[in-house]
Write a structure and sequence with these properties.
single chain, mainly alpha, two-stranded antiparallel ribbon, 21 helices, 1% strand
Length: 500
Amino acid sequence: MSKLNKKLIFYIIGLLLLFNGIAMMFSSFVSFLTNDGVLKEVTLSAVITIILGCIIMSFTKSNIRQINKRDGYLIVTIGWLTMVFSGMLPYYLTNSITFFPNLFFETMSGYTTTGSTILNDIETLPKSIIFWRSMTHWLGGMGIIVLAIAILPLLGIGGMQLFSAEAPGTGIGGDKIHPRISDTAKRLWIIYVGLTLLETILLKLAGMSFFDAINNSMSNIASGGFSSKNESIAYWNDVPIIQYIIILFMFLSGTNFILIYFGLTGKFKKIFQDTEFKWYLSFILTFVIIVTVVLFLSVELSQTDVFHPQVYGKLESSFRHALFQVVAIVTTTGFVTGDFISWTPFLTMLFFGIMFLGGSSGSTSGGVKVMRHLILIKNGMLEFKRSLHPNAILHLRHNSSVVEKPIIIHVLAFFILYLILFIVGAGVLSLLGLDFESAIGGAASSIGNVGPALGTLGPLSNFESLPVFGKFWCAFLMLIGRLELFTVLILFTPYFWRDH
């Protein structure tokens, strides 16, 4: 194994700081336009981050132009932490959040697109800070690493290892937007920006203010969940068209972006031939029908849901809230239109279960991902056949292609590790004093980057009540979940640090 390219690693970390600082400048512009009183502090945050990035880049120029696998894993994990620590500056300098555990939790939740919050009154924050919260989602959604990959070839640096470490996926399918990874990254970002702008325009036309529209669009396309309102999307419960627009873009954000590219280029046949997409759509429709029926038949719930009393027992509202919450949880966006943990114990368990589903591979959503579930199910069915026909040669297929055995083993390992981390995560939270429902909900939400959880961490409350260590622990689970386990955990193995 080759030695770590330390200079190159720090050089790209500096580049990420530069990107982060430039993003902060947009918040400065918002502060200037809205005259929210924190222009100096937000601008200072941006300037500090940009200068720090430039200094690191100037002192770490290297002739080495190729990133190896070890470099990639290290750059992505350290890069994510660097973005989080630098991303704290606007909160801290504006006195929006000053307690370090809260700072770390909120910023990590932003960049990992989890959407859990420790803030009790979002609407009192300066406009530029609300915008920065949404911006952390937006940067983390597609991954600022992917943006860096689009720039790296201009610097003479190959970025394939960064891409595979930041977006590990399952390695199945074979469909590519472009043979060159940098061109793929550029096209992904064009789609990402385009969807954000389109949703912003539609939400504005539907009645949102432009500020609310751009903030909720950035959060939505990133599968994040930070809203500009304390009540999240429940604030617009009397404007159904707004919620339907958000549902559409939540669905798109949970769809493989390569399929969206095919759709934009007129290759619709490829979309409906994709097995994962068909199951992604089927799962959502099935859960929506179940939740709609329960809500429609549960008129008494109107007395317990403080978000919107007296809406249940009506078909359209029951369908809309069911559709919204199912799509929000499946895609790990985490927006809410109601207190879904009060929708009968059965629905609480159902929503807890779909926290483990996740959207499509190649999307901005978190969770296990539909693709991995399909491989697990198909492999399980094949095991039954192998038991009856031990000498038969049976291949697992996806989209008419044979799935190689190393990929099946990787998916099995991922799923087992995911469950172990969930159990350990819930165990730690219970040791800190959380009740059973809150502990399992908090762990599932954090590692799946979902946002709202169960119990005391549900839609009507937030994560502010967590003990200090609990906030750091949940933030750690968020990072592991966002980078799909192996990217972070491999750094804790002795083998990774040995030079061979």
